[in-house]
Amino acid sequence: MRRSPISDFARYLRTETVGGLILLGATAVALLLANSPVRHIYQAVRDFHIWELSVGDWAKDGLLALFFFVAGLELKRELVVGELSRFKAAILPVVAALGGMIVPIGIALAVGWGAPGMDQAWAIPAATDIAFALGVLSITASGLPSSARVFLLSLAVVDDLGAIVIIAILFTAKFNLIAAATAIVLLALYAYLQHKRIQSSWLYVPIALGTWFAVHESGIHATIAGVALGLLTRVRKDPYERAAPAIRLEHRLQPWSAGFAVPVFALFAAGVPVSPTALSQMLDDRVAVAVILGLLVGKLIGIFGATFAAVRLKVAVLPTDLGWRDMAAVSMLGGVGFTVSLLIADLSLDAGAAERVKAAVLLASAAASLLAAAMLVRRSRAHRAS
C-alpha cells in the first residue's frame, strides 16, 4: 500500500539530520531578519501579544514544552529499557551535568565578579541547549555509536532542569502555591491514568494543557511541565499492545517538535543584533566575556572532568563503545548554550545588557558548535574505519 505524502514527510522529519538542518536554517533566518532593514517588522511580530504572552513567549514557553515532552519520553525510555537502565550508566550524565554547571558558573564568577548584573547573570552559562546540541550531533556524527546521543540528551536534560531550578529560585517574583499544587494533582492524575492503562486522548490532552497552564501560572518555567509529563509516561508495552504509550507518542509528536516547535522557537529567540558596533560593545562587557568563557571553556572542562573523575573512581561507566576522545567531542558540544541561557539573560539583565550578553551566548554557542563539529567529524570517521 502506497504511503501518503504527509506520512512520507513526517518520516522525513523524524530523521535527526533533517531536524538539525531545519533548526539551523531557522536560526540563520532569525539572525538575517534581526540585522536587516525589516528588523522592526520582525521585532513587532515577536513582541505582539496574544492574551498575556507575546508571540516570542508563546514560542519559548508553549512550543518548547512540546520539545521537552518528547525529550522526556526518550529519556524515560532510555532509563527504563535502554542505555541508562544500569545505575552506573545512568549516573554518569548526572555527574557530567553537575560538573558542566558548577565549573562554567565558577569561571563566569571569577571573570565577571563585581561587574553590574553579574550577581544574577552568573547562571547564564549553566545550561546546554538540547535541541541545538542534538542538531549538531546528528549532522556531524552519524558514525558515532547511538550511546553518544543518549549521553548528550541525558546530560542536557539534567542541566537544563538544574538551570530551570535556578530560574525558579532567583527569578520567580511571585510563586503561586495554588497553581503549583494544581500542577502536582494533574501530574498525579496523569500517572494514575497511565498506571490504569487508560488510552483516551480526550482525557490526556486536557490534562497536559492544564498541567502546562498550572506550571506557567505557578511562576516556574512552563517547559518543566513537558519533561514531567514525559517522565510519567509508560514505556513498557503490555502483551496486547503493538507499542508502549511513550513509543507511540514519540513517533507521533517528534515530527511536530523537530519540524515546527523548535524551529519557530529559534526563529524568535535567535534574532539578536550582531553588527560590528554590537560585537565591540559585547567584548567590552565583562559579563558578556564571562559568559563566553563559561560556555566555551567551562563546559568542556566541567563535563569532561566530571566524567573522567566519575569513571576513574568507578562511580560510573563510559557509555557503550565510546572512548575518551569521543567524550571530549561531546563535552565540547555541551558549550552550546542557547534556549535557557538566552532566557536567563532576559530575566537577569536590563534590555541593553541583555542584548550584549545574548550576542555573547550566540557567539560562544556558534564557536562551540564549530569546534565540536570538527571533533565529531574526526571521531565519526575513526569509528567508521574501525
Automatic annotation (TrEMBL):
Signal peptide: none
Membrane-traversing stretches: 21-38, 58-75, 87-115, 121-144, 151-171, 177-193, 256-275, 287-311, 323-345, 357-377
Catalytic activity: Na(+)(in) + 2 H(+)(out) = Na(+)(out) + 2 H(+)(in)
Pfam families (UniProt xref): Na_H_antiport_1
Keyword entries, A-Z: Antiport, Cell membrane, Ion transport, Membrane, Sodium, Sodium transport, Transmembrane, Transmembrane helix, Transport
Membrane topology term: Multi-pass membrane protein
Main location: membrane
Domain of life: Bacteria
Subcellular location: Cell inner membrane; Cell membrane
Family label: Belongs to the NhaA Na(+)/H(+) (TC 2.A.33) antiporter family.
Function: Na(+)/H(+) antiporter that extrudes sodium in exchange for external protons.
Official protein name in the record: Na(+)/H(+) antiporter NhaA
Gene: nhaA
